[in-house]
Amino acid sequence: MSDETYVIVGASLAGAKAAETLRAEGFTGRVVLIGEETEPPYERPPLSKGYLSGAEPREKAFVHEPHWYVEHDIEWRAGTLAVELDLAARTVSTLPTDTVRYDKLLLATGSRVRTLTTPGSNLEGVRYLRTLDQSDALLAGFREGAQVVVIGAGWIGLETAAAARQHGCTVTVVEMDSLPLRRVLGDEVATVYRDLHAAHGVDFRFGAGVQEIKGVDGAVTGVLLEDGWEVAADLVVVGVGIRPAVELAEAAGLEVDNGIVTDENLRTSDPHVWACGDVASSFNPLLGTRLRVEHWANALNGGPAAARSMLGKGEPYGPVPYFFSDQYDLGMEYSGWVAPGEYDQVVFRGEPGRAEAGAAPEFLAFWVKGGAVLAGMNANVWDVTETIADLVRAGLTGRTVDLAALADPEVPLADVLG
Ligand SMILES: Cc1cc2nc3c(=O)[nH]c(=O)nc-3n(C[C@H](O)[C@H](O)[C@H](O)COP(=O)(O)OP(=O)(O)OC[C@H]3O[C@@H](n4cnc5c(N)ncnc54)[C@H](O)[C@@H]3O)c2cc1C
């Protein structure tokens, strides 16, 4: 039996997966999992998809049943906020008041939503989506004919818009940019998402800033745009991005730069402290740069990678960044990483344009620079992510591909690299 104590702050996907890995790798010491939420650790993707659309039960989101933590001797402290970290004493102070001493500490504190400061932002009916109870609240408001205004056409905004449409709400999406998701996907594929939502009856207001959220008797009634246009609303969903939850780390003096800075083994500037998931800005040896990834797969795999590193069994963590999204009948996976605008062209294999007719498109899209594949998306095409990741890995070494073959559905994708 080990007499060491490993403390994990943040009881969500990354934290729970790290705890699971510590036990799976044979760690016999004390594992304390501290989380401010009262729900058992859960995955967030269903909150804007299967659960919010009504297709999946609430319990499906949980990483494990509550009894799993007991059975694996993990001290899961629900409803407990870590308020102070003392790196010299190696302690975490919490509310309700307690102090836990650690030998090794993992910070998996994730992200928090960015909130609006626009007049009217505090009205009843102005909602955000990060937690399970926020998803419950949205679900309760998604009624046939309800008028929903979504502010922000990012992933959360668009998925919420799709779920609201599936409940029969009228939906307006307000976005400052000229297309949804333009910074992540570029114009070519952003257009596909615009057309998909338009075909499902979503009304977009592009190039639109919000001046005020209007209300009567404390409840929201509409959104006034900067151009003077007012959109009626029973419910306003704000999806304007997130920020890493670095408060604890920053106050303790850990290196923070758009996330908690870690090396490729997910170790922070303090040798006894690791960070993973949304909150970590980690050096990715594959990309040769430090990156903070706000996606499910990075929590799913980063938690275990950090746990192994804490146990001295770690290998450099350098995944091809990956995320997925489901909207209506369009499911997609994206592998790779492209800084905004940093590609020459998008090469399509298949027909993205079918979305305009309201049919589910099936296509691959590749973001290419200098003939090398930087990223690829498979939309309603499955079991190709590993091959796309291979193309991305090859592209990162500067290997170019034949773009005609890349676009040709007759050429097996695995043969494109030759
Ligand atoms: C609605 C929604 C849908 C999503 N859909 C997708 C998707 O389709 N595809 C995809 O790739 N990604 C998706 N994501 C992103 C994905 O869910 C996140 O990347 C993932 O949740 C990150 O996990 P994490 O464990 O690092 O952090 P988080 O999930 O943010 O969890 C951090 C936890 O730490 C707790 N915490 C923070 N500070 C403290 C403290 N001081 N003391 C105690 N506890 C603390 C928080 O309360 C929280 O429970 C979605 C996110 C949301 C919100």
How are the SSEs ordered, and which strands pair?
Layout: E1 5-9, H1 13-24, E2 30-34, H2 50-53, H3 66-71, E3 74-77, E4 81-86, E5 91-95, E6 98-101, E7 104-107, E8 111-113, E9 126-127, H4 132-141, E10 147-151, H5 155-166, E11 170-175, H6 182-199, E12 203-206, E13 210-216, E14 219-225, E15 230-232, E16 235-238, E17 242-244, H7 247-252, E18 260-262, E19 273-275, E20 280-284, E21 289-292, H8 296-310, E22 322-327, E23 330-336, E24 345-350, E25 363-369, E26 372-379, H9 385-396, H10 403-407
Parallel strand pairs: 1-2, 1-7, 2-3, 7-19, 9-16, 10-11, 10-16, 11-12, 18-20
Antiparallel strand pairs: 4-5, 5-6, 8-17, 13-14, 14-15, 20-21, 22-23, 23-26, 24-25, 25-26
Helix pairs in contact: 1-8
Flavin-adenine dinucleotide binds next to helix 1, strand 4, helix 8 and strand 22.
Question: Short description, anyone?
Answer:
24% of the residues lie in helices and 30% in strands.
Number of helices: 10
Strands ordered across the widest β-sheet = 3-2-1-7-19
Mean pLDDT: 97
Largest sheet: 5 strands, parallel
- The fraction of residues assigned to DSSP E strands is 25-35%
| Overall morphology | globular
Helix percentage range: 10-25%
Ligand kinds: flavin-adenine dinucleotide
- Computed over alpha carbons, the radius of gyration is 22 Å
Number of strands: 26
Structural class comes to alpha/beta
C-alpha termini separation: 52 Å
Unreliable segments of 5+ consecutive residues: none
